[in-house]
Sequence to fold (232 residues):
Amino acid sequence: MHSPRHFALIPAAGVGARMASGRPKQYLPLGGKPVLQHVIETFHASALIAHTFVVVSPGDPYIDALVAASGPAAQRLTVIREGGDTRRLSVLNGLRAIRGAAKDDDWVLVHDAARPGLTPALVERLAASLRDDPVGGLLALPVVDTLKRSVEGGRAETTVPREGLWAAQTPQMFRYALLARALAQTADVTDESGAIEQLGLKPKLVEGSPRNFKLTLPHDLALAELHLKGQQ
Ligand code: CTP
Ligand code: MG
Fold:
């Protein structure tokens, strides 16, 4: 019997507009190496991951140096130069490119290039929680803050109950065929889970970690350095 494999798929074709740096945030240096390299090394360190695929923009000038710096681990890495205009399209192009390598029931773990705080332990927690799951799921954190909704002028109009609210992280892990179908059928989602939800399915929420936050704004780099030094 074929037992499903696990593939990592990293969309890395964004420009990092909100980071407003000289280069896309996935290539900024963090603790001596590019942000994206941390992510790739985490997947390489996880025995569960059969292969890692990275989707970059067609004209990406940085990825070749990063692959060259990976040494022998580069054999477990494939670059797909078909980034799209949105994250969804980058992921969809990646999925189409690995058709053949991935069987319908293989698992795909889609992970943002800009989340360098992922650890092998988090990858394994997610995979173990979903081993026999019919739908798949994602890392996420229960919301702890009191939430306010503003209407205009930055003034609180109401307090939104946080009960049942989670902040989505990545990896988001689904079977290859289901994920490809879900992403092809919708245009209006910001993550894989959103596409699966639109099919009427309910992805499982698996507790992630604050260190697995997404680098978005300039000050986030200093926070990532702190997490890296703390190794927690
Ligand atoms: N991404 C992608 N293709 C796009 C847009 C985003 O592969 N067309 C990737 C990014 O490289 C990142 C992940 O999706 O790894 C999450 O996206 P986000 O944090 O929004 O990154 P950017 O789009 O680069 O940042 P910004 O929205 O500030 O421009
Ligand atoms: Mg974006």
User: Anything to note?
Assistant: The chain has one domain: 6-228. The first helix runs from residue 35 to 45. The pocket of cytidine-5'-triphosphate (ligand 1) is lined by residues 11-19, 24, 26, 55, 83-87, 90, 112-114, 214, 216 (CB under 6 Å). The chain has a mean pLDDT of 96.
